[in-house]
Every structure is written in structure tokens, then in C-alpha cells.
Specification:
Uridine Diphospho-n-acetylenolpyruvylglucosamine Reductase, domain 2; Uridine Diphospho-n-acetylenolpyruvylglucosamine Reductase, domain 3; Uridine Diphospho-n-acetylenolpyruvylglucosamine Reductase, domain 1; four-stranded mixed β-sheet
Length: 341
């Protein structure tokens, strides 16, 4: 393996380099690179679109990049369609296509940066929907065991911003393609946030009209990734026990609340950050985005370490003020080695 000092693309616009980059577009590619990594005991990390990671230093090994951008229909009938997309396909290109065909299921997830392969890892979600709503199967290759496997959605323990790819499968399994099942019958989810306001008066709600509404909202409050460095939501929305929520509500009587899992109550991290006075605050070229306090942006040439330190400062202050620990949604890069998996 040669040291090529490959630049690592990431939407935070942090300057970082790896020893090498490998495009993995097939099982054959995955087998080849797994053999190299094992033989040389080289560190590696898997990155799709680079939209949910933060590098705090150069990476001393190989960046594996899922590269298959193919798309095909597996089956179709009068009720719906099952499709498969390569892990390297741009996520919003897939959503754009399905909405143009009038297929329901992905429209609320419009505008999310990144690749198709990343969607089940984070179980991406927005505006009342998540990847798990339509996910059917995921095609993977186990780099440690040198075997390919298809996993059904229930096998992945999908939850809020969570899947087995964040835990038991982290590092060892690279995603090659993803299958989704979408509906041809109207199944709109339009009660979240400002969607009812924007869609009010529409002659007929379609996947395309929901997509347009979502893109409008995102455009008004989220930084454009081609202009400002960010990774979208930096923190997860906390889920609190009823006792923890009651304590927080005593501090913020007007705090919004949503149903969580297991009887817990989900609260908006961005709202809390804003109430604690962080919206728009800046340290050097790192800032809490003025239009959405859940997002941390790189407005110039901030380093990964500077962004990391700033996020830690925000998180610590929130805990000090109201006792809520903010968990990061952004992945902090750490190297894997096959000998450890």
C-alpha cells in the first residue's frame, strides 16, 4: 500500500489527509482491500459522503469509500415498488427521483446531505420520518470475516439515530447497497413542524409537494453545504425520563416535547442550546449557526480540533445550566484495524 496523502472530502471543510483512499464499488473490491488491510495491519475508516464526520487530525491509514452509484427497480406492482441503490449514490438524488415518480416514503428526507450507504447507519430522519420507515434490506461485506451478507431492517436494531452499524458492526461491515420499499398509495406525513403551514391550501399533497416544502424549510434555516462548512445537526435530541423532563420543564416551562421511546420524552436540543444563549456565538471561525442552534459551522478555516473544543464547551455549559447531557450525532473519526475486530 503506497502512501498517497489523499485529501479527505468532508462537509465540515476541515483540511485533513489520509495515507490512501480506496473506492469500494463491489464485493470484489471489498475482498481485495480487506486482504490488503489484513496483510499490512493497516488502520482504516469507512466514509460515504463525508457529511457526518469530524476529523481532528490527519488519518494515518486508508479511507474506504463506498463507490457504487447504481440504481435499479427490484419489483413493482400497483401497490408499490422495491428499489435498490448503490451505497455511493447521492442520497438526495435518490429522493428526488422517487418523488418525481410519485412514490411515497422518502419525501420528508429531502435535502439531507450524504450518500445512500450512510442512511441506515444513522437511521437518518427528518420532519417526522426516518430511514427505518421504508428500509427493506442492506447489502454488506464483512471485512473481518471476508463474507457478504444481506440484513433485513429488523435485524439492524434501528432506533433514533441508531443501528448496529454504530455498534456491533462498526468498522467491520462496509455497506454496498440498500433496498427500500415505497408506496404508490398516498401516505403523507405532514404534521411535523412547519409542514402544515406551508402545505395549507395545496390542491393535492404529493411526494413532490412535500419534498418542495421540506426543501423550503431547510433552505430557510440550514446552512448550504456548498458555502458553509457543517455536518448538519451536531447533537442528538435528548430523550429524558419523565422525572428528568419534569426537572427540565421547571427550568424551561415552554419547552417543546415529543414522544420518545420506552415512555421517554424527546426534547429539541437546538431549542435548549438557544435558550442558554449560544445561538450565533462564535469562537474564531467556529460558530453556533445563527438560524439553527443545533448546527455548528465552520465559517472560515477552523480546524477539527477547534470545532471539537467548541462543541465540548457548548455541551458542558448546557449540562451545567440544566443538567442535560448532549450526545453528539456527528461521528468522531477513529481508526479501525482488522486485527482488533
Amino acid at each position: 500500500m503506497e502512501n498517497n496523502k489523499a485529501a479527505i472530502y468532508n462537509t465540515f471543510r476541515v483540511e485533513a489527509y489520509a495515507a490512501a483512499r480506496a473506492d469500494v464499488g463491489s464485493v470484489v473490491d471489498a475482498e481485495r482491500w480487506a486482504s490488503i488491510l489484513r496483510k499490512e495491519n493497516a488502520p482504516f475508516y469507512i466514509i460515504g459522503g463525508g457529511s457526518n464526520v469530524l476529523f481532528t487530525e490527519n488519518f494515518p491509514g486508508v479511507i474506504l469509500h463506498p463507490a457504487d452509484s447504481s440504481f435499479s427497480i427490484v419489483s413493482e406492482d400497483t401497490h408499490g415498488v422495491t428499489l435498490v441503490a448503490g451505497a455511493g449514490m447521492e442520497w438526495d438524488k435518490l429522493v428526488e427521483y422517487t418523488c418525481s415518480r410519485g412514490w411515497w416514503g422518502l419525501e420528508n428526507l429531502s435535502g439531507i446531505p450524504g450518500s445512500v450507504g450512510a442512511s441506515p447507519v444513522q437511521n437518518i430522519g427528518a420532519y417526522g420520518s426516518s430511514c427505518s420507515d421504508t428500509l427493506r434490506r442492506v447489502h454488506t461485506f464483512d471485512l473481518a470475516r471476508m463474507e457478504e451478507t444481506w440484513y433485513s431492517a429488523p435485524e439492524l436494531d434501528l432506533a433514533y439515530r441508531w443501528s448496529k452499524f454504530k455498534d456491533a458492526y462498526a468498522g467491520r461491515k462496509i455497506i454496498l447497497s440498500v433496498e427500500f420499499t415505497l408506496s404508490k398509495h398516498p401516505t403523507p406525513r405532514t404534521t411535523y413542524g412547519r409542514l402544515p403551514e406551508i402545505l395549507n391550501g395545496s390542491d393535492a399533497v404529493t411526494p413532490q409537494s412535500v419534498r418542495d416544502a421540506v426543501l423550503k424549510i431547510r433552505g430557510e434555516k440550514l446552512p448550504p453545504v456548498d458555502e458553509v462548512g457543517s455536518a448538519g445537526s451536531f447533537f442528538k435530541n435528548p430523550e429524558l425520563s419523565p422525572k428528568e423532563f419534569a426537572r427540565l420543564k421547571s427550568i424551561f416551562p415552554d419547552i417543546p416535547e415529543y414522544d420518545g421511546t420506552g415512555g421517554n420524552i424527546k426534547v429539541p436540543a437546538g431549542w435548549i442550546i438557544e435558550q442558554c444563549g449560544w445561538r450565533g456565538k462564535r469562537r474564531g471561525d467556529t460558530q453556533v449557526y445563527p438560524k439553527q442552534a443545533l448546527i455548528i459551522v465552520n465559517v472560515g478555516t477552523a480546524s477539527g480540533k477547534e470545532i471539537d473544543a467548541f462543541a465540548e464547551e457548548v455541551s458542558n455549559d448546557i449540562y451545567k445550566r440544566c443538567g442535560v447531557r448532549l450526545e453528539r450525532e456527528v461521528n468522531m473519526v477513529r481508526p479501525y484495524r482488522l486485527s482488533d475486530l
